[in-house]
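Hey team,

Filing this mostly as a record. A colleague (T.K.) asked me to run one chain through the structure pipeline before their review meeting, and I want the input and output archived in the tracker in case anyone asks later how it was produced. No errors, nothing strange. Just documentation.

Input sequence:
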Amino acid sequence: MQKYLTLEESAERLGVDYKTVYRLVRAGELPAGRVGRIYRVRTEDIDAYFERQQRQVAEEARALRPVKSQRCGACNSEMLSELSVGGSCTRCGRGICQACWAVRKIKHCSDHSSPDEPKPLHEDDEEDEGQMPHSNAKAKGGEKVSKVKKSRETPQQAVERLKSTGAPALTAGDAALAENTFLRTFSQRIEHIEELPDPLTGRTISLRQARVRHEIHPKDGNSSAPDNAVSRMVLRAGGWGKPKTCLVLEAGFVTRLELLMQQGYDGAPIGEGELTPLLDDIADRARKKECFHVAVIASPTGWAPESVMRITDRNHSRAFHNKYAAVALIDLHKDFAHLDESDSRLFAFWPLMAPARYAEEVERCAAILSDMLLERNSIKLPDAVRACKSHKEFLLAAFKKLADEGDFAVDELDDIGTVISRRDAVNS
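Output structure:
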């Protein structure tokens, strides 16, 4: 008889966190069935998944074994593992490295290459004007032969080459389009938010009633290259006898603009040295205005690990944790938001700073609550927080999501606070 497990039981069987199993199911890597809102996983599917992972680890380990004293038959470069081997000479079987086989399209070793076949990479490097390609190359009359320079690859060709290796490469035009899309999307997210808290004062700002000033720097757009622009919304409330409240929501786009303009493309993540001036500027402006700043900084080529650690790890020696500001780093290449998950000030800002992760967490909590409400008539908010191991902001959103679907009702009771109940239990 087949045994079906909940996601919590599946996580315990694999010895991992619930969220890991949830993501595997949502990604289709771990087969699961769904009855209503409840996921169920067969034990044999869990065991089969683990066996696949075992085989994959073993195959990767075999692939990384060194290749004993083997060099590329075309360019003579050393091949350190089997992953370095792209193919073999079609005539003698001699190994050819990935660079020659896949990039240069060389299918024969140096002993069997034909005159019209592409040259190995090390023989095709540009030489200084007037330098002989080979020391014994001479033309008629004993004059030295100058090698004719070959055309360089276009930015688009360079991007395609880098993308084939998994690098987050893009042209200046692609970066300009990504910048425009990101800034526009950020403004649209703000339009769907009704209110936000001010962590400095503890008061709430209604976005519909706040005085709003929208700033964009620089103002002159350039469709052929990004501007490294910042879109900033300054929200103010109060005054005229009422307590004043201020909140700044800003989105910034970061590229290596000079490099993009020079070579037309870029493919490297933004490092800590490039991030630090941005963080210093945000912290300085927020401190001077004594106004809480929420900054979302996006990079189309992603972020280096040391940059991510400064934002996400509070124990990091140079961690960014500021009284007046909070920052999220958006990796547009991987579509992922990096932020300090332990910062309770930010939970209300997740729909703005990390909307995809916010939606995933709300969905996860809703699935757990739906499962619990099969056996219970109602759940109090504090109990839901403990059961889902999440923050009340996410649970309130999960409550609303379930209520909007029609099977559940959310009520505010004087004695116990916010409660979600099954409608059939309420009506009975």
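Quick notes for T.K.: Residues 170-351 form one domain. The first helix runs from residue 7 to 14.
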